[in-house]
Protein 1
Amino acid sequence: MASEGVGRADAEPGSAEPGRVRPGGRTARVRESVLRAAGDALAEHGFDRLDLADVARRAEVGKTTVYRRWSTPTGLIADLLDDMAEQSSPRTATGSLAEDLRANARLVATTLSDPRQGALFRSVIAAATCDPRTAEALHRFYAIRIKEWSGCVTEAVERGELPAGTAADEVIRAVSAPLYYRLLASGDPLDEAAADRAAGAAEAAARAGAYVN
């Protein structure tokens, strides 16, 4: 799941919550550099050692710029998560529920098994357990991703592949949950086979009506 700057008009310092204004032009390039540096720092050292001065050094921007715009490490993480949600890969639409869910599972597994991205997600999730703002940003990130992929379930219901009333968001959560368990708890391999099993189990449960409201 890549992240880049998104062009919007910037605001005067202090006119909006730090890290939530979407800039344009040079400010967008600075934001992109800072968020990339923040992701690198999180992946390398974790949330506890995230330092805005270090991020500024990595991004080759002034410390004042970083402190003025993001104020705190949690503000920086919140903006990083928002950017990741906006820039994540669009969902696959194959016309087959099994193939769509398998594509979703493989994307999650590939992301979480990547040395940088997996470490980044572990750090962010750890931070969210003790910081409300980071937790809010993480919830927003996953709400966007679930909404993006839930369309494949809705379309499967319309095609008659799944029972009417199937909760699309619950099916998508069921696909990724075993993969996050492997990342955060068991340490079992996050490979294509694990992804396919997760997708297959979610599909079978959905076809059996397990997610009907």
Protein 2
Amino acid sequence: MFTSHGPGVRELAVQALSSVERGYDLLAPKFDHTPFRTPERMLDAVEETLAQREGSFGAGLDVCCGTGAGIGMLRRLCRERVTGVDLSAGMLAEARRAHPDPRVDFVRADARALPPELAASYDLAVSFGAFGHFLPAERPALFAGVHAALREGGVFAFPIGAPIPPSHPLWWAVAGFDAAMRVRNAVWRPPFVMYYRTFPLSGVRADLRAAGFTVETAALEHFGRRPSGAPRWRLVLARRSARPHRVHVREGLGPVG
């Protein structure tokens, strides 16, 4: 799974025993040599689907941009500035090195509390591979922040995979990983939040609508379909609607939808 340029077992162990922010700071220089980086095939599929359905956009925002895998896609899709947001200073440093473009800027921030200066500034927001770092109770704050960052009619797009059936060996691998992470977080501090089964489409759709989005999905046909005919991957297209959005506050989570 890892190349000779990627992190070793000891480095991964140190990361796993750190906080999310510190862990990614440590992993950043070698992150692009791990299987955790979003594959080019996925980026190409999302870009092609967005271009076909929406055409081009004004400004673009990559939420939890990491080392900048999605920035090149946004540069091609967007006519105006492109911004990457991430909590890890180390990941942002790698992203800046990879994209020395005056039209691209990077902001260090928690995606659950995006800076007010980003409000109503973007026509497209994307995110890849980061949602496992947010507990279900944190999704409303995350989605409310993205909603606020978009201009009216703006789109929040991200891929989501079909549920893995329990009969598939991967289901057991993923379930085992999540169980191990729960045990780790119960006995070790600081926590490292990373789960694979906490982002179901039904719950995500409900939280997006509560945040003020209208939601549709498009099949990413590049990845084929399951025997049932359902797509293996979908692109969620959440559009900021014109209706007023009420913001509530939950203790400890900040503004949420």
